[in-house]
Recover the amino acids of this structure.
């Protein structure tokens, strides 16, 4: 059952990617095949996880499986998989995001944390290119312990620099992060 | 501090060095940031009637690459930059040459490429939306919904007809992307020039381009250009700028390659560009060339906010 769901999701992602980039295929390289894009995705953000008795720093890598851009012009597909231009995010969008955290000093038994996040991006100034807000929910699994967080944050500098604050609703846990979003 | 955090910080330090801490880009950036919030020169005697009742051809230079072109009853605007800053960090030196609120109709908005000084979201918000927004190939994914009557990406030599006027995209030779990194995968897409043809008048808007004699000669063969709007800055450092921009001498040569009747210089005086010693550096160079070549009747240097009207007879 799980395998079918994963296959189905991969198929949908492939179709959406192909259709959204079809018009520019002849003359523009797909960014997903560009080594530069791949290197940029490897740049992590920094997050601080604040627990009642301790604070931990982590490096956090994000990947965007799917985004729905509702702020763009009508001649481009609102759906994008893995890659979106900054305006497709900051001009108004709902984004599915997955992340992996690496805690250099182990938190509990593990160095790793993972999350799935659903975020809405709302533009404030210059269609979001100068300033915007995001809010949403995140499900984190840190060192094997799951927790659900509410997320709110802001971005600036053409959507590259994000600050997010996350508050767990079921544990005494705060998380704040500085993220660099390169496409 | 552990090894991971040290590595992380080292990455940004190295990236900073790689992207030009030692040379021109960082110097230009710090100069731009330092001047943010500084004074902006005002335009005296601003035109209050940007669109005339009927005129064979007029060009009103609003500043930088922004021109309001009127051919009879059709109105076009090129690369509208009407905001205080371009891309958050570069403040303009002189205010826009018109009050955009006076524009009630623009048939076509022509965007030559995606850089902040040519595709300005705040400026597009200020314009009437009853015309078409034309973009270079690859541009659609960079444009939020401004609700223009139509929006269209243009391949080289493809045409769009708007209320009887034909706008054709023509090649340019510049560099792509908007945010730096995207130039790495956009290749030769994302920049263009335009030819506007209506009722026997032909205007060429070069956008931003380097000097490419073969390209200009080819465009000149295909179109009989009356007025060419050609960029003349930034000039310095010439070893970098000549790869993507034209200096005044090259622009004059381009006018000849194009067999254009006259040229109007653009893309100077409005923002701090390159390492040009003053905002009028390119203009001063151009004035010298005009004098040397005795081409006063072919090159019209406008001040920001000034309009040049070409009467029917100017083609004779």
């Amino acid at each position: 059952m799980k395998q079918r769901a994963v296959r189905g999701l991969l198929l949908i992602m492939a179709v959406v990617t192909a259709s959204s980039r079809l018009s520019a295929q002849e003359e523009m390289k797909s960014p997903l095949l560009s080594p530069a894009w791949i290197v940029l995705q490897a740049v992590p953000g920094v997050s601080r996880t604040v627990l009642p008795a301790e604070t931990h720093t982590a490096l956090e890598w994000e990947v965007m499986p799917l985004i729905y851009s509702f702020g763009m012009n009508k001649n481009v597909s609102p759906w994008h998989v893995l890659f979106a231009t900054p305006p497709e995010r900051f001009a108004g969008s709902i984004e599915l995001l997955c992340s992996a955290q690496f805690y250099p000093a182990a938190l509990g038994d593990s160095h790793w944390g993972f999350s799935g996040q659903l975020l809405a991006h709302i533009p404030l100034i210059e269609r979001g290119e100068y300033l915007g807000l995001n809010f949403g929910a995140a499900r984190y699994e840190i060192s094997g312990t799951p927790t659900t967080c509410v997320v709110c944050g802001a971005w600036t500098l053409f959507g590259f620099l994000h600050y997010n604050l996350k508050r767990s609703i079921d544990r005494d846990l705060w998380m704040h992060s500085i993220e660099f979003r390169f496409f | 501090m552990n090894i991971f955090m040290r590595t992380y910080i080292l990455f940004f330090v190295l990236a900073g060095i790689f992207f030009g801490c030692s040379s021109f880009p960082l110097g230009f950036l710090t100069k731009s940031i330092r001047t943010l919030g500084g004074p902006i020169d005002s335009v005296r005697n601003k035109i209050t009637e940007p669109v005339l009742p009927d005129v064979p051809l007029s060009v009103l230079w609003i500043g930088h690459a922004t021109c309001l072109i009127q051919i009879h009853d059709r109105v076009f605007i090129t690369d509208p930059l009407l905001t205080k800053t371009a891309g958050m960090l570069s403040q303009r030196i002189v205010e826009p040459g018109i009050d955009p609120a006076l524009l009630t109709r623009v048939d076509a908005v022509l965007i030559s490429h995606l850089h902040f000084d040519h595709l300005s979201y705040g400026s597009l918000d200020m314009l009437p939306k009853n015309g078409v927004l034309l973009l270079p190939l690859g541009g659609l994914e960079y444009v939020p919904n401004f609700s223009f009557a139509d929006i269209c990406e243009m391949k080289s030599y493809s045409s769009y007809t708007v209320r009887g006027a034909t706008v054709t995209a023509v090649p340019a030779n510049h560099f792509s992307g908007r945010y730096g990194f995207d130039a790495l995968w956009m290749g030769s897409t994302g920049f263009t020039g335009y030819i506007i043809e209506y009722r026997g008048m032909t205007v060429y808007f070069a956008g931003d381009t380097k000097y490419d004699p073969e390209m200009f000669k080819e465009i000149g063969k295909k179109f009989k250009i009356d007025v060419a709007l050609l960029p003349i800055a930034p000039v310095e450092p010439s070893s970098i700028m000549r790869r993507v921009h034209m200096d005044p001498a090259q622009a004059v040569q381009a006018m000849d390659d194009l067999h254009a009747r006259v040229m109007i210089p653009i893309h100077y005086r409005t923002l701090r560009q390159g390492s040009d010693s003053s905002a009028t550096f390119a203009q001063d160079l151009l004035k010298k060339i005009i004098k040397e070549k005795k081409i006063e009747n072919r090159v019209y240097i406008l001040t920001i906010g000034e309009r040049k009207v070409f009467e029917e007879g100017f083609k004779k």
In short: The first helix of chain B runs from residue 3 to 21.
